[in-house]
Specification:
Two copies of one chain form a homodimer. The first copy, chain A, is α+β, with helices and mostly antiparallel strands and 305 residues long. The first copy, chain A, has a single domain (7-297), classed as 3-Layer(aba) Sandwich (oxygen-dependent coproporphyrinogen oxidase), CATH 3.40.1500. Chain A is built from nine helices and ten strands. In chain A, the strands form two sheets. In chain A, strands 1-2-3-4-5-6-9 form a seven-stranded antiparallel sheet. The longest helix of chain A has 23 residues, at 7-29.
């Protein structure tokens, strides 16, 4: 049994973060853009989806918060103690697909999970999350900036975090069937329990800081790239590469599968899918082109710092 | 042990069918279109992929034959007798994505599978296959023609086949996460073993006949629809609906997953994916429009005859 229960504080934090991220993206877009849809989960809980598409800068973006609870879903039964009777999960998911192929797609997610017994006492609890970048054209300074911003925040809390979470991210966002990284990574972590690497309040504080590092990690990059010129061939390349993003999310992503199997709202889960995608047969860029360079970079994880 | 071994005859049949289907599609397209790529599977066997895209009629089409063999892959170990040492599988897959949204997408697949012991004696063998139709705009007479053509051939061999295989198809091509049929069905069957519903030669003969029924089932439909006028909004709707096709193939299709897990060639497996696809948030056609009608039809299987 744990007395530490950051549920309400974390939920309020991510609702605030949702607002901050949307405002920040609307500032870039130059107009109020996001619509909010709320939804209920029949078995308990629901969510607030903020979606925008068709912008000059943001071809599609989603900033979703969900808070779900109820009996342990089948998909989790093997992973929780036998005394477990119910669960509570809340999290924020951010996916940004810029229109300009020079600007990378990004994804971030921060979540908190509780396993409860029949008295609603906490049997287990953990935080998870991460942020990663998927460029279509590689600007090394963007990759470095993104990683450095996340590393700086990690380092303030635990020197082991960045190296560990960076590798975790590279392993997670891997399209096994293509033997290709989804993007140039970032950080990924799961099952961070209070009292393990960090004590209760320190852990909670780390989560707030790393989630708050997402905007300074990404916003300068999209600002730098959103007005660059690009050709229709470069746009085409972006649309082909977005296919790999769909393949990862539908074939491999545990978050997507968790959402689908626990009665999450389809339209909110699939806000992560890019707006326009192409599948063409056997696309093979010529050697030493920028497109070929992107593929080379994605063959194996790289140290960006 | 079985003396009945149609492996070579079936393989020759599907190579001939591949040629016939491509010629028939090229005639519709009005030009020679398909390119052939052959590929080797490191563990044994390989394939011949015929692909065409960017046509006036055929936005993307693939007609693939593969013949693979070797040690039992992990994904199959639970499903074969303990004496099983190797497998042999050969099949043809056809996927046609027309440009005109009034013309339906179609898919067909016919395959033969052997499980062999250490003496290369056949421990088990079966045929599988099917053909189905995915319209974006429903023409009831197209659905009826497709089903009737398949039923007529089924009925000549076994009166139970069409009713059984029609239901099997409806159950298989179902997007559980959307609670929506992928299309208006057709037939689907698997594990048809010689000596069960049909004796050896009769079964082999049925497979040739039903595979040969695919062209007369589909070609009249595409000819009827390929020159109809359509608006950019109707094209847009087709691209949105193609997203459901991708979702089915990546989330649910056993054939896709079997291919990926047994070292099939990615670019050949993914020839099934549509050329241009859109994911938009919460697309909801107005009541009583043609788009709404398509969604209504896909809510539950229907008897088309």
């Amino acid at each position: 049994m744990h007395n530490f229960n950051p549920r309400i504080r974390f939920f309020e934090f991510i609702r605030d973060l949702q607002e901050t991220v949307c405002k920040s993206l609307e500032e870039i877009e130059g107009s109020e853009s996001f619509i909010e849809d709320s939804w209920d989960r029949p078995e308990g809980g629901g969510g607030w989806s903020r979606i925008f598409s068709g912008g000059a800068v943001l071809e599609k973006a989603g900033v979703n918060v969900s808070e779900v609870h109820g009996p342990i879903p089948d998909i989790l039964k093997d992973q929780v103690p036998s005394a477990a009777k119910s669960f509570y999960a809340t999290g924020i998911s951010i996916v940004i697909h810029p229109r300009n192929p020079m600007a990378p797609t990004t994804h971030a997610n921060f979540r908190y999970f509780q396993v409860l017994d029949s008295n609603d006492d906490i049997l287990d609890q953990w935080f998870g999350g991460g942020a990663d970048l998927t460029p279509y054209y590689l600007f090394e300074e963007d990759a470095s900036h993104f990683h450095r911003t996340l590393k700086t925040t990690c380092d303030e809390h635990n020197q082991d975090f960045y190296p560990k979470f960076k590798v975790w991210c590279d392993k997670y966002f891997y399209n096994t069937h293509r033997q290709e990284q989804r993007g140039i990574g970032g950080i990924f972590f799961d099952h961070l329990r209070p009292g393990e690497e960090l004590q209760e309040t320190e852990l909670e504080n780390f989560i707030y800081k790393i989630a708050s590092a997402f905007l300074p990690a990404y916003i300068p990059i999209i600002k730098q790239r959103m007005n660059l010129n690009y050709s229709s061939a470069q746009k085409h390349w972006q649309e082909v590469r977005r296919g790999r993003y769909v393949e990862f999310n539908l074939l491999h992503d545990r978050g997507t599968i968790f959402g689908l199997k626990t009665g999450g709202r389809i339209e909110s889960i699939f806000m992560s899918l890019p707006p326009i995608v192409r599948w063409e047969y056997n696309v093979s860029p010529k050697k030493n082109t920028a497109e070929w360079n992107t593929l080379e970079i994605l063959k194996k994880p790289k140290n960006w710092l």
